Structures are given as C-alpha cells and as structure tokens.
Automatic annotation (TrEMBL):
The keyword Transmembrane helix applies. GO terms for biological process: transmembrane transport. Residues 180-303 form the STAS domain. It is a multi-pass membrane protein. Keywords: Membrane, Transmembrane, Transmembrane helix, Transport. CDD domains: STAS_SulP_like_sulfate_transporter (cd07042). GO terms for cellular component: membrane. This is Os08g0406400 protein. The chain crosses the membrane at residues 31-50, 71-88, 94-117, 129-152.
Amino acid sequence: ISAMIGLTEAVAIGRTFAALKDYQLDGNKEMVALGTMNIAGSMTSCYIATGSFSRSAVNFMAGCQTPVSNIIMSAVVLLTLLVITPLFKYTPNAILGSIIISAVIGLVDYEAVILIWKVDKMDFISCMGAFFGVVFASVEIGLLIAVSISFAKILLQVTRPRTVLLGNLPGTTIYRNTDQYPEARHIPGVVIVRVDSAIYFSNSNYVRERTLRWLTEEEEKAKAEGQSKINFLIIEMSPVIDIDTSGIHALEDLYKNLKKRDIQLILANPGSIVMEKLLSSKLNEHIGSNNIFLTVADAVRFCTRKSMQEP
C-alpha cells in the first residue's frame, strides 16, 4: 500500500509540474526510477522514497531547471542535518510552514476546480476528497481518498453500463438515443436497445435485466396507447467491444426469456471479436444467423417485412 501511494504521489506531482513546464511525463520511467531508488535505499534501511510535493514546489519556485538542483539540495540537506541543525532548534514551525505555503499556493488552480465541477461531479468529489485529505491529514491520506473514489467510480461505470433506447430520425436510416434526440420515433412492434459497454461477468446480469426492463416498459406503453404488440427486440452491439462467457450466458438467458414471450431477439453490428465468440459458443445457431445484421436499419427492415407477412 505504501509503495502504491508513493508511486501515485510521485506521478501526480510529476504531472502537475509537467503541465506547468509543458513537457511529457513517462510513467514507466517514473516507476523504474522509484523502484531502483527504493531497492538501493532498502539496503541501508532508508524510509520509502517518493516525490515530495512541498520540496518540489519550493524547488520549482526557486527557478531550478535541471536534476542537478536535486543533488545540490541533497547536499544542503545533508549539511544541515549534520552541522546546522542546532541553529534551527528555536525556529517556529509557523515560519517553516509559511515557506511551504508561499511556494505551494501558486499551484492551486481555482479555475480547474470550477471546470471539474461543471464537467463531472464525481471527479469534483474526488478532487475535494484529495484536497481536504491533504489539508486535514497528509498527502498520502489525500491521495488515498482520491484514488479510492476514482476506483469506486470506475467500478460503478463497469458494473452499471449505460443502455439506451434508439429511435429513427425522420427521413433517414439513422437510429439514435431517444433521450438525446426527442424527435427520434419508435418503430411499431420493435424495441431497439444499445449497450454502451463491453459485456463482462461484472455487468452481464445488469445488462440483461436492464434490457428486459426496457422491453417491459415499452410493452406497457404500447398497450396503453393501443399500439401493436412488441414482436422484436434489436440489440445494437457496435459499442460492445468484447464479451466473455458470462456475457454469452446473459444473451442466451435473454434469448430464452424472449422466446417464452414470443419475441424475437435480433443482434445488429456485433464487432469481429464479439462475433468470433458468438460463433465459438454456437449462440448464433440459437439466435439464428439470419437474425444478425450489419446495421440497425437492415434489422428494422427485416422486422418490418416480417410483420407485414404475418397475418
């Protein structure tokens, strides 16, 4: 845990100054440098080494340009510890703190915080968690809070991917999110759902249940408005970049559920990786190869023709 926090702190500090000085930071080199440094330090019982935000800020504000400044600073610190330390015995901590504050205060970007709030509220919570963690505890605690919130956000996005209903834009063969495009019209007897994520074990059940919920809601809506019965469910799979065994089982369960309700499952535009796994699992044989289409428009045309042929 200490190593992870140390690495996170060093990379975060490096990226901050890389943005200020307009240069690129190589994360691999940072890890190699930190690893080598800590291996060497462990042989002499050194404390875990990482980048110091306060000292880096002081170094930056002093106008240092090259790594030679670190050598000079190390020599000065060593000299201070060995010789000059007694002279600092009566120096108030407030004075030492003021030096750090004066160096760090220029790194606070208020406009960036406002932008984060406008763009993503979860990122803002992570930012505030890091800020208050550093202010009231330590840099390590602040980073730990920020990383934990970020991991929670990623897990939430992975386990609950976005699924949307698609409708046809009038006068075109384009199908888009009905929430984003209110003018997009629903196709009678057809429900079109798009899954905006890979389907893995962590979200396969959610995708299946959310799709069935969309279908149930549309069936109730069609019944209330006196529209034709839902006979087809089209899943737009172009955003699905991958699928695992749990995802295959989820699609199979969805197919069986729809079959009991006399609704036909149709897949539109599965990617090459997804298609290979559908073939390997032979799920395409259950669904029917003639029920897998290149585009949503092709699938809708098929559904429309089939609906017209039925008595």
